[in-house]
């Protein structure tokens, strides 16, 4: 039984379709995320990566297709059940999307206020906020405003906020975009540290080849609205297919 559980995907997308007017963005996209893995989805700018991740968390409605998270079909869930399911998913938005008018502490308390009871987290909010900030090395910024932090620090705070409910799945939308190479490396190391510490399953959307190389156990390329090809970084970067090669040329 345990074995079967390990093989079942924790998240599965089947035949996802989404069109805006005559812009067919997703044309039958398929994806499985298995427990404990770091899956990277790479695609060109405008290929539909953010649309896919927004459909996943229910911020956008797909035209058709199935999305199963922890064995539940999210299109069939009632709002209360969907809300509960969402508490198991941490989402790092493209950019950092911190609330500008709230301190770091208040930004982190925000998801706690809504969901802490449901999740039976026993620690105090203060302790959870401290723990999450400690994980990203920023405990000392607790009472600062986001505008007082550098871009890299803001990204780390956003990551701390995504972690605070101790999610089983973390979705990262372009975690390194807009950061300098050294700060990008720090964020990638942090993502690896978090994955090891909490045994989370991660879906990482990126067009950063370095990020993909360091973090991925497996990759999917999103091309023409479908999961065009999948494999390890080594397999894909050695592919002879020009559409695949295009991603790895520098
Ligand atoms: N709400 C919307 N209404 C209309 N079109 C949209 C909407 N959201 C996205 N699109 C279109 O869908 C396509 C894919 O957008 P998406 O944001 O998913 O790209 P992306 O792969 O995340 O790109 P990037 O790497 O630049 O973040 C684009 O052509 C975009 O214009
Ligand atoms: Mg995007």
Layout of strands and helices, then pairs:
Layout: H1 2-7, E1 9-20, E2 23-34, E3 38-43, H2 49-56, E4 64-69, E5 72-73, H3 79-86, E6 89-92, H4 104-119, H5 125-135, H6 151-163, E7 169-173, H7 181-198, E8 201-206, H8 209-215, E9 218-223, E10 226-231, H9 233-237, H10 242-248
Parallel strand pairs: 3-8, 3-9, 6-7, 7-8
Antiparallel strand pairs: 1-2, 1-4, 4-5, 9-10
This protein binds adenosine-5'-triphosphate and magnesium ion.
Fold and architecture overview:
Pfam families: ABC_tran. The chain is α/β, with parallel strands linked by helices and 250 residues long. The protein contains ten helices and ten strands. The chain is globular. The chain starts with a helix and ends with a helix. The chain binds adenosine-5'-triphosphate and magnesium ion. Magnesium ion is lined by residues 49-50, 94, 173-174.
Question: Which features characterize this protein?
Answer:
single chain; 250 residues; alpha/beta; Rossmann fold; six-stranded mixed sheet; four-stranded antiparallel sheet; 10 strands; globular; binds adenosine-5'-triphosphate; binds magnesium ion
């Amino acid at each position: 039984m345990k074995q079967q559980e390990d093989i079942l995907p924790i998240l599965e997308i089947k035949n996802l379709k989404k069109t805006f007017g005559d812009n067919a963005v997703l044309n039958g996209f398929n994806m499985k995320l298995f427990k404990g893995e770091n899956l990277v989805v790479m695609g060109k700018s405008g290929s539909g990566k953010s649309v896919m991740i927004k459909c996943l968390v229910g911020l956008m409605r797909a035209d058709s297709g199935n999305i199963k998270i922890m064995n539940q079909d999210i299109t069939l869930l009632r709002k209360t059940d969907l809300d509960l399911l969402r508490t198991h998913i941490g989402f790092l938005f493209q950019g950092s999307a911190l609330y500008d008018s709230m301190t770091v502490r208040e930004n982190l308390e925000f998801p706690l206020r809504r969901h802490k009871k449901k999740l039976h987290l026993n620690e105090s909010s203060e302790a959870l906020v401290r723990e999450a900030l400690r994980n990203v090395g920023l405990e000392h910024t607790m009472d600062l405003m986001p505008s007082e932090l550098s871009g890299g620090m803001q990204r780390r705070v956003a990551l701390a906020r995504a972690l605070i409910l101790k999610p089983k799945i973390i979705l990262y939308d372009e975690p390194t975009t807009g950061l300098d190479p050294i700060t990008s490396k720090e964020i990638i190391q942090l993502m690896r540290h978090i994955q090891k510490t909490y045994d989370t399953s991660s879906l990482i959307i990126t067009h950063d080849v370095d990020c993909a190389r360091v973090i991925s156990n497996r990759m999917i390329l999103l091309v023409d609205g479908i999961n065009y090809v999948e494999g390890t970084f080594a397999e894909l970067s050695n592919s002879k297919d020009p559409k695949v090669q295009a991603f790895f040329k520098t």
